[in-house]
Write a structure and sequence with these properties.
With 343 residues, the chain is an alpha/beta fold. The protein has a five-stranded parallel β-sheet, with helices on one face. A four-stranded parallel β-sheet has the order 2-1-3-4, sandwiched between helices. Helix 3 links the parallel strand 1 and strand 2. Helix 1 crosses helix 12 and helix 6 crosses helix 12. Bound molecules: N-carbamoyl-L-aspartate.
């Protein structure tokens, strides 16, 4: 029996095609409402605020964040949810400085959300698997905002929405994922989400051998009959892809093997020679942050018409707003039993 609190969002594999289709439709409506100043949008905003009165979120991050932390807070405020607490770097500002364990903190934080009504707890942690463990003891639904090199399911939802918004559908697209595919959790979650929810996509994993995609993801894609290829130079595929999804080389993860950064700049970056190959209709994505040191996505690229990474980040707000509504009032498609370590 699973111990994870129902309606929790832990893994990208938990989203099934029916749920995702419904969800993406709701996100498109939310996106229109957020960006509209007309009367109908004001009326809808008022209705949402009434619905959300007395509901709220607690947000606790153990790891650095710019986009995920603030976009969850903006999304919650857009709905009129109460921000019961928001900790950007919890370990450094709590009794954990006195030696308290992270799991004891989870118990206290989520118990403290209970008396206020129905709430959700949003967290990010440095350890893979910690979100599932925390959801096992949480008194409220939990949303994983990133667990070390594990997963980042809400980023995958906004990545999927970005591609769908651009092309009308994700089906049939050629998508290259570039950079650190071994330790980058956004890649893990997006690969799982695409694997379970698309038809006829073709994936190109473009990375140095020591940072290539994991066997676990390759198995998953094979089971879902998704075509994929491992590639060791972005120049080979940049000209034929609809989406090139760049990522930075992670250096902060335990056990990261060293990477030849000159090789990354030559073969796994959006260099001028790669930009020349891009098709007009394609888009460049990046979950951000980009690395100033490696420079896999030079600032000059911001000005080209294919750059979509800042819009991608903005899409986090409608995506997370709808996700919060589903967690608090709707139903999140559940996590398959066999995935749960606590099962
Ligand atoms: C990423 C993350 O934190 O996993 N950023 C994000 O959430 N948008 C990417 C990264 O840290 O490289």
């Amino acid at each position: 029996m699973s111990l994870v609190h129902p309606n929790s969002v832990i893994y990208a594999q938990q989203f099934n095609p029916d749920w995702l289709k419904y969800f993406m439709g709701e996100v498109a409506k939310m996106d229109r409402m957020i960006n509209c100043t007309e009367r109908w949008a004001d009326r809808q905003r008022k209705q949402l605020r009434q619905q959300c009165e007395g509901y709220g979120v607690g947000v606790t991050f153990w790891e650095y964040s710019t986009r995920t932390f603030t976009s969850f807070i903006t999304a919650a405020k857009t709905l009129g949810l109460e921000i019961v607490f928001a900790h950007p770097l919890f370990a450094q500002m709590s009794s954990e400085m006195k030696g308290e364990s992270d799991l004891d903190s989870i118990r206290i934080l989520t118990d403290n959300l209970m008396p206020f009504g129905r709430h959700a707890f949003i967290m990010r942690h440095t350890e893979e698997g910690f979100a599932e463990m925390a959801a096992g003891i949480s008194s409220v639904p939990l949303i994983n905002g990133g667990d070390g090199p594990g997963q980042h399911p809400t980023q995958a939802l906004l990545d999927y929405y970005t591609i769908q918004k651009e092309f009308g559908s994700v089906d049939g697209k050629k998508i290259a994922m570039v950079g650190d595919l071994r330790f980058g959790r956004t890649i893990n979650s997006l690969s799982y989400l695409l694997g379970r929810n698309t038809l006829d996509v073709e994936l190109f994993f473009v990375a140095p051998p020591e940072r290539q995609i994991s066997e676990g993801i390759k198995d998953f894609l094979q089971r879902h009959e998704i075509r994929f290829h491992e590639v060791d130079d972005l120049h080979e595929v940049a000209g034929s892809c609809d989406v090139v999804y760049m990522t930075r080389i992670q250096t902060e993860r335990e056990g990261c093997p060293p990477v030849d950064l000159d090789q990354v700049r030559d073969r796994f970056s959006m260099s001028p020679s790669v930009v020349q190959l891009l098709q007009e209709h394609m888009i460049i994505m990046h979950p951000l942050p980009r690395s100033k040191v490696v420079n896999e996505l030079p600032v000059e690229v911001d000005a080209i018409r294919q750059a979509r990474y800042f819009q991608q980040a903005r899409n986090g707000i409608p995506v997370r707003a709808v996700l919060l509504l589903e967690v608090l009032f709707g139903q999140i498609s559940s996590i398959p039993e066999e995935m749960l370590k606590a099962a």
